C-alpha cells in the first residue's frame, strides 16, 4: 500500500515516518496481565505502523515498548487536532511500561495512536478503527442465521463492502458441548487494492450504508480438555435491584475478544438459547460478547473465560440462600478451609472488600472440593478478590 492510499484515508496532518511507505502489518492480539487486571492487547513490531479494526466499548491495551514513551492521538472525526497525553482524553490510561489502556473506546476514537520514545523517535504507530458495537450483527449457525452479504458501495459501484472475519475463538467449554464465536469487521475493497476497514477507507467522506456494521457469528463446538495453567477466581455477592428485579453481573476477565461462558446451577447459558428466545431467564449483553449478564433469579452464577472458572456470584445471603450454601458445604474439609482462610483474609483486607467471611469459608470449601482432582495441575492458582 503506497502513500496514495494513505492520503486518501487520512487527509489531515500525518506524523511522517522516515519512510513515506505505510507499512500495514498484521498485528498480534495477545493477552497481558499488567498490575490492574487482564487486558486484551494489540502489539505492533518496533518501528512499524499497524492497522487494525476493533470494537467500541471493549477495553484494549496498546503496546509501546519504551520507558519514556510519549503518546499522541489523532481522531479521524476531529480532523485537525493532535492530542498529547495526558491531557483531554479521559478514558485513556498510561500503564507503567509505556503502553496505554483505552477503556470503553468510542467509535469517535477511531484514528491514529502514535508512540515515540523520549528522544521523539517513533516506536510504533497504530491506526485503530473502533467499529460501533451497538450495531453488531449477531448470527448463530445452529439456528440457520446467515451473516451479512457482500454489497457494493454506491459511490462508484466498484467498491465492495464485506465482512473480514477473524479466526474462530476457542470453544468456551471443554469436555462438554459449548459454543465459539468469531468477530468480523466491516471492510471496503476496491478492485486490485488491499481492503481497508470501512471508516478508515471513507475518511471524512460522510457516507453511510446499513451494511457498514461489525458482525459476530456463533456456532456449537465440543473440544477435549487440555491441562490448564490455573485461574484467578473472584467471589462476589449480588442483590436483585428492587426496581428492575434484576442484577448485572460482570465476568472479571471476560472480553468480547475471548471465549466466555456463564453457568447457572451448572446449566450453560448459551447464545443459541438467547438468540432463539428459548432462554429468557437471563440476558447476555452482546455489546461485550456476553461478559455481562443480566439475571432475574437469586441463583449461583459462575463464569468461565478461556475454559477456566474465573468468578462465582452468590445472591446476597438471605435465610433461604444460606440454607442452599450450607447444603453445598457438606463434605468439605474444615482444616483445609482454615488454612486458606488466613491467607485470604490478608488479601481481603488489602483490597477492602465487603465479603461475608462465613459464606467465604463455605465457598472455599466448595472450591477446594471442585478443584481437588486437578490440584497438581493448578499449582499457580491464585486467589484474586476484586
Ligand atoms: C523492549 O525493548 C527492549 C530494549 O529496547 C528490548 O530489549 C526488549 O526485548 C523489548 N521487549 C519486547 C517485548 O519487545
Ligand atoms: C465478499 O467479498 C470479499 C472481498 O472481495 C471476498 O473475499 C469474498 O469471497 C466475498 N464473499 C462472497 C460470498 O462473495
Automatic annotation (TrEMBL):
The chain crosses the membrane at residues 350-371. PANTHER family: FAM187 (PTHR32178), PROTEIN FAM187B (PTHR32178:SF8). This is Protein FAM187B. Its main location: membrane. It is found in: Membrane. Residues 1-37 form the signal peptide. Belongs to the FAM187 family. One of its GO terms (cellular component) is membrane. It is a single-pass type I membrane protein. Keywords: Glycoprotein, Membrane, Signal, Transmembrane, Transmembrane helix.
